[in-house]
Each structure stands twice: as C-alpha cells, then as structure tokens.
Amino acid sequence: MPTFEAPDGALLSYRSDGHGEPLLCLPGGPMRASAYLGDLGGLSARRRLILLDLRGTGDSQPPEDDSGYRCDRQVADVEALRVHLGLERMDVLAHSAAGDLGLLYALAHPDRVRSLVLVTARLRPLGIEFTDGHLQEAAALRSGEPWFEAAMRGYANLANGSTADEDWGAVMPFFYGRWDEQARAHAAAGSEQSNEHAAGLFSPPEAFDPEAGRAVVASWGVPVLLLAGELDGGPRPHVVVEAARLFDDARTVTQPGGGHFPWLDDPVFFSDAVATFLDRRR
Q1: How far apart are the C-alpha atoms of 92 and 103, rounded to whole Å?
Q2: Cis before residue 30, ω within 30 degrees of 0?
Q3: Rounded to whole angstroms, how far apart are CA atoms 55 and 74?
C-alpha cells in the first residue's frame, strides 16, 4: 500500500481503488482499518476511492504517545494526505465514528472540502449524541428476526458491564440489515482489524467545541449528505433529519432496510445515492 508522511514523521498508509475523481474515505470503528469498507458497494466503479488507515490501524504507524489517537489530533493527518495527493479541494466520505474526524477536518479546512458525505456517522463535533433510547428503538424493529432474543440478552449483559465476546457476538446482527453469510464474515473480521486500545481514546469530550462547530456549519458553504440506515440505531433516521437542519446546505437519505454498514445491505442503492450527490456537486 502507498504511504505518506504525517506532520510528526509517522508513515501512514492508504489504499486507492477504482477510477474517476478521488473520494477520500475515513473509516470508523472507531479505529478500524479501512479494509472493512471494501469498495463501498461498488462505488469504486464511479469514483477513485482513497481509503486511509488511521494511525495504529492497518499498515499505518501508531503515534508516539496515546494523545495522537484523538480524532482532533488526526485532523493534521488528513490534511497531510490531501497535500500528498496534490488536491486543492476534495470530496470526503466518513463512516460511523469517523464522522467525528470528517466533521473536525471540514470545520478546520472548509476551503479544502468540496463536499462531505456522512454515512451512518457520529456527529459529536455538533453536540449530537446517540442515546440508549435510539438503540432500543432500532432494536425493536428487529423483533421478528430469529436471532432477536439472543441479541437482546447480549445487549442487556453489555449494558450491565459485560465484556464477554459471546455477548458482543450476540448483538452483531443489530448492525446489519441482513444477517447473512456476508454480514457474518464482515463482523468476524472486526476484531483483527480494530485497535481496541486506540478506540477508547479516539473521541474524548475535550476534542469538541459543539457551540463553535454549529456556528461554522450554519454558513460554511460545504454541501453535506447525511445517509442513514432505516434499521440503524446510531444514528436513527429522525436524528439525521434533525441534524441536517444545522447545516446551510445538506440533504438526507434513508436507505430502506439499511443497517450500520449500508453498502453491504444494498450496494446499488448505496452507491447510487452517494454518486448522485457527488455528481451534482461537480
């Protein structure tokens, strides 16, 4: 995989997949290697995906100290990649926990972001949190699934402090619109692709200034797409609709039957929704 030098000298890796105008893709997890994004449901047929491995994941070197795992500290890594690629402005896609990083980058460098795509993304830089109530609301939609009762037991155990692998495994179906062979394989790869130590350091409260963030996005001129999964608990579609009102130029899409990894549930719908948004912003 190609590499570039971060501001502190660390070598960070990224993967390039596909053809066309570049789309910088930031992986969530938090702190999961970008391999889990695959080709984003065939989006690589319409865009050249630049998939970054964040510090300490995939083939990227870790920071010199743990503070380097903070999402606000990794903004400089994203900017260094832009410079390395020789792009004046770029389209940015952020998934899940990387919504925090993508938003922080765009807040710091709005003149370098042509558009921002937030896929089932966290929005902590704007003071938006996803609650236990949201997760319960989404879980109730799956009550007819054969795995539902076991998943709910696992969820209750985790809520009571369990860290057992079997409880985490039991709740995994909630993250996917279809708990099929592909979803099982995707979920099983998560452990080896993730830096669990770094995950707990990624988004401390002090990384965010929600009041300042809301003031910027209200007039920053960056077009934003917020894509939610119909069955996802973080965020629920109604949370995404409310969040979109904070931006001066935003549209929302809810993918029918979509979970937290919507490109797996319906690749055609997902890639069409994202590509259509990006094409309109050229």
Answers
A1: 10
A2: yes
A3: 8
